[in-house]
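Researcher: Structure for this, please.
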Amino acid sequence: MIDISQKEIWFVTGSQHLYGEETLKQVANNSKQIAEGLNNSKHIPVSIVFKPTVKTPSEITALCEAANTSKKCIGIVAWMHTFSPAKMWISGLSILNKPLCHLHTQFNAEIPWENIDMDFMNLNQSAHGDREFGFMMSRMRKKRKVVVGHWQEERVEKKIGNWSRVALGWDEMKNLKVARIGDNMREVAVTEGDKVQAQIRFGMSVNGYDSADVVEKINAVSEAELRSLLKTYESDYNLADSLKEGGEKRDSLVEAAKIELGLRAFLDEGGFKAFTDTFENLGELKQLPGIAAQRLMADGYGFGAEGDWKTAAMLRVMKVMAHGLEGGTSFMEDYTYHFTPQKSYVLGSHMLEICPSIADAKPSCEVHPLGIGGKKDPVRLVFNAPAGNAINASLVDMGNRFRLIVNEVEAVEPMGDLPKLPVARVLWDAKPNLDIAATTWILAGGAHHTVYTQALTTEFMEDFADIAGIELLVIDEKTSVREFKNTMNANEAYYHLFQHKL
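Model: Predicted structure, token format:
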């Protein structure tokens, strides 16, 4: 479902002919060793591909054109081994549409105090060569990631690895297809948005489909497929007695399995990696997809409830970013609060659709009334989420721009067993505290739906916002309401002035 095996990042070194052939040979050899070292790093999930040193405007432009058209290339790591006059980069940078990471490093870690001479100085000029390159990108208002440090440091490898994961997510979003099944929950504002502008900004396409399109696939499910999936349910989850073979609610499990198989077939046939539904427009679906949406998320699909296509897209993108990392990533909703004089908490949950990738143990498979929607009782997976650091991220449409809001949180163990709550859930302490976090979130227009992840950090979201050219607002341990308001006011002016450049 998530395949990154063919994706690569190009390692590009800048220099010039001024230094002569011997120096350029050394530049190429050093660059190749750095590329190989990064390629072998366990912290970088994609291939790092060495590219020949670029020394002229035409070579730089040709390389950027090749990167733009390569389906494998998801980004460029650029380094200036020597001084590379930055006017040479203007043409290439002006057309480059792939993410760029500026690695400010040098081949040697330490100065060879006893042997250093002008030949060494002429070869190892990144300390000022990279500043020249940095000026040009700033002059051109080119958003990029800057990583500083020796290329063999684990800290540097991790930063490049994190950025490469964000580049993977951006590559996914540029090609993402989202199916909006049943349109939007009526009269709801935040789940709506400008889908045309979203395609212009992000590349993803969002289109509506009727529930009948899914029902057609459900009706085509074979008995063999159905039996196989039911066995999977029985082995992977703790089935409630009523759902076991011969149980009084077994038919509900059978129907849930049919919905999952039909929904998968619909998504796979259409090439959709993310989808939404709404309980108001279920048509002939006998129950709201619960376990189906949960298991599809666990396999890497993006999902948004009530027509929330922005959260569905972000969930898919963040699933791709987090591929192979510890910790789960799920659709989430701020549901209810736990206020106490000492500390207040948020109970995150949803009617049904929380991804079991964040479960702390083997989920229970249960069936309960939904209470809304007028359909039969849906099947769902019930579990708690583990304690630990996490973030909630929300993408909203502000009319003149997209805004990404991130709140750092700490998940904690529930303070009770919740025996009557028939949904998956996670309890968290919002940083810096619920008072400031909720105040600033509401002032920012943050949605009630989010992507919750224990695999990714704020740094990933910052890099994503830079690549996408969208606004980022972060609520963390240092946030104050007054400074947050000032930041939003400054952003209004910034995005008004520079919207045409973003």
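Researcher: Any notable elements?
Model: The longest helix spans residues 154-174. The CA atoms of residues 384 and 417 lie 10 Å apart.
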